[in-house]
Amino acid sequence: MKILETLGAQGEIRIFRVDAMPKGVKPLSRENGQLIIGHSETGHHHILEAERVQVFEAETAPEGMRVLYALLESPGELKHLRGHDTHAPHSFEPGVYMFRTDREYDPYAELARRVAD
Amino acid sequence: MSKIIREKNKAHGGITAEEKTRMDEHAKLWITRAMRTAPIEPDKIISAIEGIYAAANLKKPRIVIVPSPLVMAFAYGASAAIWYSRKNGKSDATDAATRDATRAATRDATYDATRAATHDAAYAAAYAATDDATYDATHAATYDATDAATHAATRAATHAATRDAAYDATRAATHDAAYAAAYAATDDATYDATHAATYDATRAATRAAKGNAEELAALACRGLAGNFGVECARRWSNVYQGGNMWAGYDCYLTAYRDILGLELREHAAYAHWEQAAIHGGYRVMHEEFCIVSDFPEVLKVDDQNRPHCETGPSHRWRDGWSLYHWHGVKIPAEWIENKKSLDAKTALTWQNIEQRRAALEIVGWNNVLRELKARVIDEHPDPACGSLVEVQLPDLEKPSRFIRAQCGTKREFAIGVPPEIKTVTAAQAWLTGLPESQFEYPSIRT
């Protein structure tokens, strides 16, 4: 799998177009009907919407990270569910995309963890 | 624009400039209603709720006005549990407080073993009590008979162009203004209170209450109706209606009637719903009772209508239940009430990044950098890429490094990176989990 293009970032979610779905991924289940790309403690999730889409999670990822891949067979959109300070949506053509949620370093615990909002 | 048609049962062709002007005023009126802080007027809200039940062909409920959504949620839990137990021939819900009091003495020893079983049983019963008994019979029925019916009839009477224009001018405008300031904050806080606090209350049965409002309310609920009542309280959101907090939709529906001139037979039943949206806050709808919350007495927002107050609570209801927000982000009360409790270290290392950003703003970036003897290691000319800052945190031997950067919404964040990182680009690559050789800055940030 190669990164073809660094497309953008929606808050802590970084978005890449890639050439193929990599090996070592497992299907991501919907939660309340939604494909959640980035979880939020306060419910302000980042969700992927498309008519025909499958999302997979990499079985291995760098410490503290979650890496997802989306196979879009129809146009799609990454939306941020917040009523204020909303990160604007990103639109995609059909293709294969990678979403990487930023991590951060905790100097007291001396470990990496997912950025939580 | 296609031909404007205005008839009693038809509104097609979009909206005119004059109608748009009137809709802007209409939206302001409903925003004012959503932001109301004047006390509830019992005669008006009781009449409105009785009308809603009558429109749904339900018997007149007992209507109780409570001071806050917090009390509403827990009063609902206790009441729903007691009613369910009475109707199903189970007296144990009302006896639960007694039983639990005696159980408490031995609970420490058996806590783990009993909690799971108690929780499972209470959850199943609460589900039945709150969903089966009330949702279909009451909440859905009253909504269907009033708001939903009017919405369906309005859609049938209007054309997409008119609907879209009216929607933008009314619901979207009102919703945008009221949502962040009032609805979302209240909803989130009540949800948190009835989940975290009920868990604490159940778990803390043998402990003294900590004294915060949420936990005391949960304990009171438990005293009245046991764990069953607490589990029912957790499910308040399955049977609630938003009152003035759902002003956006009512603004939209009433604009068709009051500005575009629709006169639909569904408006008669809807009028009760509308009055309840004007004269009451959150409410829970049960076949036997309705509990409706008063409005907050304090509701403060910033220039973008986000809940915000630098000197006190953003929301306070008349029973004292208070919420604190910093430009839309809920924060601990002590950060405002006792600003000395928030120091630079706490601000910079707070786990939730949104609250961390708020904390850094409250303390002030300059104060944080000075207090922690910060020095800039590397700086990128684009503030979205940021600067790499080294600080000396208390209790740590080695200095720590943080990226200080703007996100796509132009708000400034601080994110920790490993101490061996030497450049902004290396830090940004590490955040993304990519080797620096594969890393590129994103061209579009939102």
Helix content of chain B: 55-70%
From the N-terminal CA to the C-terminal CA of chain B, the straight-line distance is 34 Å
Contiguous runs where pLDDT drops below 50 for at least 5 residues of chain B:
93-122, 200-210
Which sequence of strands runs across the widest sheet of chain A? Answer: 1-2-10-7-6-3
Distance between the termini of chain A: 30 Å
What Rg of chain B is obtained from the alpha carbons, in whole angstroms? 26 Å
Structural category of chain B is alpha+beta
Oligomer: heterodimer
Q: Into how many domains do the coordinates of chain B divide?
A: 2
- Give the helices and strands of chain A as they follow along the chain: EEEEEEEEEEEE
Q: Quick one: overall form of chain A?
A: globular
Main β-sheet of chain B: number of strands, strand sense, barrel status?
4 strands, mixed
Q: pLDDT below 50 for ≥5 consecutive residues: which ranges of chain A?
A: none
Average pLDDT of chain A: 89
Strand order of the largest sheet of chain B: 3-6-5-4
Query: Radius of gyration of chain A, Cα only, in angstroms?
Result: 14 Å
Mean pLDDT of chain B, to the nearest integer, reads 79
Determine the number of helices of chain B (DSSP H or I, runs of at least 4 residues): 13
Please provide a written account of the structure.
The complex is a heterodimer of chains A (about 120) and B (about 450). With about 120 residues, chain A is an all-beta fold. Chain A contains no helices and 12 strands. Chain A has strands at about 5-10, 15-20, 25, 35-40, 45-50, 55-60, 65-70, 75-80, 90, 95-100, 105, 110-115. Chain A starts with a strand and ends with a strand. By secondary structure, chain B is α+β, with helices and mostly antiparallel strands. Chain B folds into 2 domains: about 5-295, no CATH class; about 340-440, no CATH class. In chain B, the strands form 5 sheets. Chain B has a 4-stranded mixed β-sheet with strand order 3-6-5-4, with helices on both faces. In chain B, a hairpin with a 5-residue loop joins strand 14 (about 400-405) and strand 15 (about 410-415). Strand 1 of chain A pairs parallel with strand 16 of chain B, so a sheet runs across the interface.
